[in-house]
What we know:
Elements: E1 3-4, E2 11-12, H1 14-27, H2 29-35, H3 38-41, H4 48-76, H5 88-98, H6 100-127, E3 131-133, H7 136-139, E4 146-148, H8 150-189
Antiparallel strand pairs: 1-2, 3-4
Helix pairs in contact: 1-4, 1-8, 2-4, 4-8, 5-6, 5-8, 6-8
Amino acid sequence: MSHPSHPGGSLLDPRALARTFAACLAVNVPILALLLIPQLMRSRAGSEALLTVGLLLLLTLVVGAVVLVPEVSAKVASAGPHWLPGGARARVRTLRRESRRTYLWRLGEFVTLYVAAQGVGGLIAWLLPHVSDNPAHAADPTASAWIIDYPNYAIQAGAMYVCICFALAWYATRLRAESVRSTARAQDGD
């Protein structure tokens, strides 16, 4: 059963969102694994070169997740003949072609939620600092200049991961709703 998400008439099924979110948590574990490696995600823990590699890997994984999440959604929350595994990405391409503005709005929602995930990570880093000066560095310049508090770092990475997965699930569920709407409009027009 779908429920209106706002007066504009877009539909959002909370159960589909919950199922897609749970699936995103399971299938995007490589993003979590990357986020949990401070040497690749923080220049203070590694180097600028490693940070660049880590950020490129993160970008690749997130873009891949955005491309594949409609199929994940269709697998766990199919919706009639228009949102099925193997066909959801084609429905997204059709939406992009037929209603670019709507598609860009949904993508913008994802980007906004992704940026909010970064904000959540920043807030947690502020509340639970994970980097501090290494006092041994003053006496031994070969020692690392920074100490990473890994439990605090892992809490930050985990919270960001949950938020990123929610952003992906929201994006896929909103695209699913648009697919349902466009199919209903096409059937009403026949």
